[in-house]
Amino acid sequence: MEMINIKIDNKDIKVAPGTTILDAAKSVGINIPTLCYLHLHDFDITNKPAGCRICVVEVKGRRNLAPACATDCYEGMEVSTHNIRVLNSRKTVLELILSDHPTDCLVCSKSGSCELQTLAQDMGIRQIEYQGEQSHYKEDTSPAIIRDVDKCIMCRRCEMMCNDVQTVGVLSAVNRGFMSVVAPAFEMNLDHSVCTYCGQCVAVCPTGALTEVDNTNQVIRALADPSKTVIVQTAPAVRVALGEEFGMAPGTRVTGKMVSALRSLGFDYVFDTDFGADLTIMEEGTELLDRITRHLNGDKTVKLPMLTSCCPAWVNFFEHQFPEMSDIPSTARSPQQMFGAIAKTYFADKLGIKRENMVVVSIMPCLAKKYECQRDEFATNSNPDVDFSVSTRELAHLIKQANINFTSLPDQDFDHPMGESTGAAVIFGTTGGVIEAAARTAYELFTGKTLEKVDFKQLRGMEWIREATVDFDGTPIKIGIAHGLGNARKLLQDIKDGNSSYHAIEIMACPGGCIGGGGQPLHYGDTSILMARQKAIYTEDEAKTIRKSHENPYIQQLYAEFLGKPMSEKSHHLLHTKYFDKSKPAEIDE
Amino acid sequence: MTQYKMHLLVCGGTGCRASESELLFHNLKKEVFEKGLENDVQVITTGCFGFCEKGPIVKVMPDNTFYTQVKPDDAIEIIAEHVIKGRRVTRLLYVNPETEQHVADSKHMGFYRKQLRIALRNCGFIDPENIEEYISRDGYAALAKCLTEMTPAQVIEEMKKSGLRGRGGGGFPTGLKWEITSKSQADQKYVVCNADEGDPGAFMDRSILEGDPHSVIEAMAICGYCIGATKGIVYIRAEYPLAVERLKIAMKQAVEFGLLGKNIFGTGFEFEIDIRYGAGAFVCGEETALIHSMEGLRGEPTIKPPFPSVSGYLEKPTNVNNVETFANVPVIIIKGAEWFASIGSEKSKGTKVFALAGKINNVGLIEVPMGTTLRDIIFEIGGGIKDGKKFKAVQTGGPSGGCLTEKHLDIAIDFDSLTAAGSMMGSGGMIVLDEDDCMVSIAKFYLDFTVEESCGKCAPCRIGNKRLNEMLEKICEGKGTMKDLDLLRNLSHVVKDTSLCGLGQTSPNPVLSTMDNFYDEYLAHIVDHRCPSGQCKALLQYVIEAENCVGCTACARNCPVNAIAGERKGIHVIDQATCIKCGACLEKCKFNAVFIK
Amino acid sequence: MTKITSLADLRRIKSDVEAKMSLRERSETPESMVQIRVAMATCGIASGAKIVMDYMIDELDKRNIPAVVTQTGCMGYCYAEPTIEITRPGHGPIVFGFVDSKKADQIIEKYIKNGELLDGIIPVNYENIEGKK
Q1: Among A23, B531, B532, C74, whose Cα sits 20 to 30 Å from the Cα of C22?
Q2: So what's the architecture of C30-122 in CATH?
Q3: Which residue among A64, A93, A173 sits closest to B459, beta carbon to beta carbon?
Q4: How many CA atoms lie within 13 A of A233 on its CB side?
């Protein structure tokens, strides 16, 4: 390819045609500051409205300053990235943004991780010359996400994620001029909209405009209550990311330290959501097998493909957008919820305590889990199966509050019986993992043979939509995988149009699967972090001795002692659910 | 008798309509019918004559009588006296303010003498709702010539040679734009007419669409032929119902006559036009925001490049031109590029339509060759400053422009000279200001507008303009500081330098221009807490002149806040701290003792 | 309405309508044309001035003579009706009396075209204020 010659800050460099000034500068170690720009490299997702005007640079011959993120280089271009004109403009623009921003950094939940705060620090802003009116909006709290859009800087990242990637379409710019802000239509509350609580907006918001609901105080109160037995379950995706909050490299497996920390915090029993995942495979695998077998035997009433149902944001999406197809997903509950149901019955019985005296807390990479545990159908006599869900970020805060020195903790093991899990369970944390886990069990149940090669590498990867055919000893089973709700929509539309030839489809709402969840440590656009986390998940799986869900002895014990068999009446009552039509028009707040 | 003996042309532009010209038209027609003259006398409505100050206008042909300020009730007299008896109704004739004589022929009026109506050639002459009248004036002959005698490249060459530059404000060479768009490869291209006309006080495009919509339709078809587009869209602001109606009628007639649609003039060329409506956003006059608005998205601009010529509406090559630019196209083709290029100045060819408004005697729509001086426009065509006041400045280019002062009066107006003088041509708005206008208030007025109209996408415009506006407000209220002047200047330059689109890139122009030309007014507000023009209410002081005060106590008794102290027959004094500047004392004083400082 | 399918069609419509519009076209510069005023008060109309006016308009058009024909009120020469006043560009007005179609024809050919005077001119015997500055 013919390279072009440009000059940046008096350095002569060659770049490929179509390279932006920002990337060209980065290639020679010049990091032009940005704010609204976001490039998720491995997913080819870019947000560059060129609206913040922080990355402006001077281009010789151009009348005004150019936004580096959105201006392509041309032959002979001469760029100055930090002369006095540029610095004055950049500083003034930043001051303008700060002048319309609340100054409650001290108590803002984003303090320390806020991109605007970091930029102000780096630019050395000591005074805001241009004071004036500030734009104020009403605060909106939903079960999972808090919108405090006084802090919105119109970077449009959340709008991009919600519309272009997730295709949910809840957030967009409203109003005009000074009062313009990103919000749901008519500035209605999130819980009146079709928001799925996937939290991808929170994951990319540079300021404290979009944050998670903080449940740590409830956890602390529960831990301090002597009358309560407090149980914690941890999702697989947490253990490969939690370390990042303490300065460890992305993808460091901190399972042992995580268990230690939770025990230090005072949880009575430190269990593992992966136990619930193994249970999910038992139920969902059996259900899948039943459907496939009936289908292969010519039963026309059976609906295929079967869709996984462990992702609550995906279930929400489904109930809002495709409610007419509610007989297609699996009826199995998510691992979090299955765990809670079993904990408050089977385990409470074992302890001899009433369910009202047990508090089940989940540590999740996910914000939708906060909403999921509040769903009416997941409670008995108003006592929820899972009481609170806290995100990975909140757990890190808890650990820091308790002044636990995380990095120097010793490795500890989970408690029994609900802390034991297989490799199949841990791969739930990544896209492709749930269906691979299901395949490992379904294969043996279907063929009656032992599965020698446990790794289904054809189901792995990061491409948005993947498909693979798994050979069940001569019977080809077609699998589809999608992550990101926009891609889920494509597969669902195919099913609706009658063009789908899959037997089973795995859907994850978040890019990368749970490792990229809305509650995980922020990646600030560096998708190599997600790649590292995914790799760690598979390494964690390989390190396990038992890698097939049905071989989990504690799961076998649970069925023997309590549930009977998968899809039994008790299993149905505790571990399965139904779906609701939520496609009614949204209410408009007054 | 096949011919009418007399034509009565009644102005049907929005301005005259607002003064009941429609009723006048009906009354004239009714009277003609009742007197049995319907075969002899033709009464039609036309587009804008331009002399809006003196509307409603009725022009009588063949004796070329120009009646002004005609009321509906005057219809009877006009028919009885002028049409039947041949006597002009002198009280309806224009009076030359200098000679105090009646002037019947518009050619002899100061307002019209220096005008050259090219874009407005048919306005005030033809009935815009009758395509045949347009055809009689070489209408659609330009399109025919292009389709049957010229190749697209030849037409583009002619447009380039003419030197026509965009009349919407950008001043980009039209021929060049057409050439670039013609070179873009795509399966579908679009011709877009920007009829959003958001500048406050501007009504050039409205008048052209109300008075001669076919010229725009024909030009769009010619453009389509040149660039390879078969579809055209007119994006017109919804606040122009009459223009929309006339445009729709014109389009319908063009389709009926086979001048729009398939196989035009039997050449196989097809072109159809659609209308889209604006929803009240000035920013949608910016071409990329306009395009996004048409696509159903939020009307926000996006960065250029890519330019619409390469990727525009629905990401196809799109040519966006202003109404007035299009209006010039047919006549350039008929009369030739050389003819057009012989008018105007070296780099700005042709004429420009201006909406002359403000403190001027002859408010209205004018069209002058480029290179006409400001002095001619204001003092000859405009008839000088209203009420004999002193000229202070003229604001050109609307909220994107700056002000020109006394020292600029002899500038030959064209694109480049106005920019060099610190203002810009813009779309053609010209607001004349006199000694009673406060320049700081004017800057604030324009910032009020741009703050309201900013789309909010980019930080410098969204927040920067707001801060500029707040500082100007502070100054007008007498709370400004010298530091504010430095901040105003720096912020203005930064907003201009960093804004994403033309709105933010030009909104600080009124601030910079007024600061450059009227710095003393700013200083007066800040240092002396005084508004020299007496406009900023917060800085007005009502004072009693001791010499004239006889102590009648009328002012004190009528002051709503008891701010006036004084004994009977003694000098009265107004307490400035209490005074709310309502003006009651000034009204009541019969001895001329109360003054505003 | 006629659909235009060729350049010829366009030209035909143009020439058809041009005739109707020509009055407006010409009237922009009336001083360069012959001005004819036909007295159309009661006596004039009673004597057939309307026929004369129609004739003048048609014939001047046919013979391609640019002219502005307007009607006016009583010029005062009631005994000589129909009367018409002709002003050639650059000349003063001349009033002809006892005009009928035949006379009108002569007036066109002789006076209007060639400036030749004819019988039947009525000398102006009054001033009017319009003439005064």
Answers
A1: C74
A2: 3-Layer(aba) Sandwich (3.40)
A3: A93
A4: 33
The residue of B498, B500, B509 whose CB has the most chain A CBs within 10 angstroms, and thus the best one to mutate to test that interface, is: B498
The residue whose two tokens read 């045609």 is A17
Token pair 């990337």 is at which residue? Answer: A23
H helix runs in B261-322, sequence order: 287-294
Alpha-carbon gap, residue C41 to C39, rounded angstroms:
6
Sheet harboring A358-364: ordered strands across?
A269-272, A229-234, A358-364, A388-391
Across the interface, do B462 and A177 touch by the CB < 8 Å criterion? yes
Cα–Cα distance for residue pair A422/A440, rounded to 1 Å: 11
Q: How far is C120 from chain B (nearest CA, A)?
A: 23
Domain A4-82: assigned CATH number: 3.10.20.740
- Cβ of A481: how many Cβ atoms within 10 Å? 29
How far CA C10 is from CA of A228, A264, B103, B133, B266, in Å, comes to: 94, 94, 38, 12, 12
Q: Compute CA B416 distance to the chain's CA centroid, rounded to the nearest angstrom.
A: 20
Segment C56-84, tens digit of pLDDT: 888 888 888 888 888 777 777 777 888 89
- What is the rounded average pLDDT for all residues in chain B? 93
CATH: 3.30.930.10, 3.40.50.720, 3.40.50.1780, 2.40.40.20. Which one for A216-575? Answer: 3.40.50.1780
Please indicate whether, in this complex, the C-beta atoms of B87 and C57 are within 8 angstroms of each other: no
Closest CA to B83 of B156, B164, B121, B29: B29
List the single residue in A with minimal CA-CA distance to B502: A64
Between A64, A130, A173, which is nearest B467 by CB? A130
Task: Give the whole-angstrom CA distance, residue B300 versus residue A156.
Answer: 13
Contact A53/B460, CB-based, under 8 Å? yes
Burial annotation A400-421 (CB, 10 A radius, 16+ → b, else e): eeeebebeebeebebbebbbbb
- Of B166, B231, B239, B229, the closest CA to residue B209 belongs to B239
Inspect the interface and report whether the beta carbons of C19 and B3 lie closer than 8 Å. yes
Residues of B with CB under 8 A from a CB of C: 1-7, 9, 61-64, 84-87, 105, 107, 125-126, 132-133, 135-141, 144, 148, 253, 256-259, 263, 265-266
User: Is A67 in Cβ contact with B303 (below 8 Å)?
Assistant: yes
Number of residues assigned to chain A: 590
Residue A527 corresponds to which amino acid? T
Residue B516 one-letter amino acid: D
Collect all residues of chain B within an 8 Å Cβ-Cβ radius of residue C7.
Answer: 144, 148, 265
Q: Distance (Å, rounded) from C-alpha A202 to C-alpha A196?
A: 12
Q: Which token pair is B482? A: 């010298």
Model confidence over C114-126: pLDDT tens digits? 888 888 888 776 7
Compute the nearest-CA separation of B204 from chain C (Å): 23
- Any idea which residues of A carry the catalytic annotation? 284, 287, 310, 330, 369, 372, 377, 514
CATH dotted code for B131-341:
3.40.50.11540
B351-425 is classed CATH 3.10.20.600: yes
Query: B302 CB contacts (<8 Å, ≥6 apart)?
Result: A49, B288, B292
Q: Which of residues 70-109 of C touch B (CB under 8 A)?
A: 70-73
The reply to whether ipTM tops 0.95 is: no
| Residue of B253, B225, B41 lying closest to B142 (CA atoms) | B225
Band of the pLDDT at A367, cuts 50, 70, 90?
very high
Residue of chain B minimizing CA distance to C1: B257
Residue C24: per-residue pLDDT: 81
Residue C76, classified by CB atoms within 10 Å of its CB into exposed (0-12), middle (13-18) or buried (19+), is middle
**d(Cα A176, Cα B457) in Å, to the nearest integer?**
9
What is the Cα–Cα distance from A367 to A371, expressed in whole angstroms? Answer: 7
Phi and psi (nearest 5°) for A77?
Answer: -65, 140
